[in-house]
Amino acid sequence: MKKKLRVGVIGLGLGRHHLAGYVGNDEVDVVGIADVNGELLRTMAQEYHVPNTYTSYTDLLKSQPDLVSIALPNYLHAPATIDALKAGVHVLCEKPMAMNAAEAQRMVNAAHGNKRVLMIALNNRFRTEAQVLKKLIEEDVLGEIYYAKTGWMRRRGIPGAGTWFTQKARSGGGPLIDLGVHMIDLTRWLIGNPKPKSVLGATYAKFSDTEQGVIDVEDLAMAFIKLEGGISLIAETSWASHVPSEGAYVKLIGTKGGAEIIGDKLTIYTEMHGQQVDITPAYTPRAWADCIAAEIAHLVTCIRDKKTPMSTGEQGMEMMKILEGIYKSADQGKTIKIG
Ligand SMILES: NC(=O)c1ccc[n+]([C@@H]2O[C@H](COP(=O)([O-])OP(=O)(O)OC[C@H]3O[C@@H](n4cnc5c(N)ncnc54)[C@H](O)[C@@H]3O)[C@@H](O)[C@H]2O)c1
Description:
Layout (H helix, E strand, L loop, with lengths): L4 E6 L4 H9 L4 E7 L3 H11 L4 E2 L2 H6 L4 E4 L6 H10 L3 E5 L6 H13 L4 E4 L6 H11 L6 E9 L14 H4 L3 H16 L5 E9 L15 E8 L3 E8 L8 E8 L2 E6 L2 E8 L2 E5 L8 H18 L7 H20 L3 E2 L2
Helix pairs in contact: 1-9, 4-5, 5-10
Bound molecules: nicotinamide-adenine-dinucleotide (NAD).
């Protein structure tokens, strides 16, 4: 039997779900957790029986774990990831990978330079409906996919107004970098990660009640993204807008069929024997926390078997180029080439 991986978790907001995923995984031992919030540290250590707690993540790194999850506010992703990689530790970094493409590039360089694995946590790829559709696409059920549309729109859902989430200097942006990153990534992953060529985007801030604290990011963003192979992708995302209710979707149009994921429901639109048919594959959707556990299990297996994980730093960097391009396009009012 192989030795268990020694793992740590840095940042215990969303990170507590990483912690739960590791604790439920037989191939790892959780050796430590880090958070500046001492009270949260104590509670999590007690709940999950973690032997060591650290208010400084660098002290956790000094204990030489094999792997850490980094679930810190966005502005700390790059510095903490690079510190971990330089310390010889594999990293699972939460989305968005970084604040911008330059930071992402430094993270990728640090992974290569230190021969460590860097995986970006994009848990939507682990949703059952996404994995079912991915398989159908690989079996050419949709044919050549040439048009896609995706979005995650909230009616009201600005996360923690006045916290790091709504401050551009600490988040890098609003719903685009927070929610849009998931859906644009999911769409590109489903169609084989075609490289981005150009973006035209617009952002709006119409719900920013600054009495609650600093909100200097957009509350709605939309973009027209051109991908290699002539594929067009339209994306929309909001934290607050006059829509019926919160919803996320991916729609793909191919030469042999179309597909929609709306919520956790997948439908395929195609033709059989000259007849138009709608297909609803049967599956049990994975719960949100189980997607994180599955993501962790995947990474642990990849590290053990020396395989490249399915969500790489390089893909994360391409995503950062798209997001940065959309913000630049919104500022400058013109199409931004990516390449
Ligand atoms: N994949 C998903 O579905 C998903 C969901 C939510 C959040 N996230 C991502 O996870 C990251 C964290 O988001 P969150 O919602 O947990 O934020 P949060 O603010 O709730 O939690 C961040 C935690 O980091 C701690 N922290 C801050 N600075 C620190 C430091 N220097 N050293 C150690 N700990 C520090 C805070 O005390 C806090 O407990 C973000 O990048 C966010 O985009 C991903």
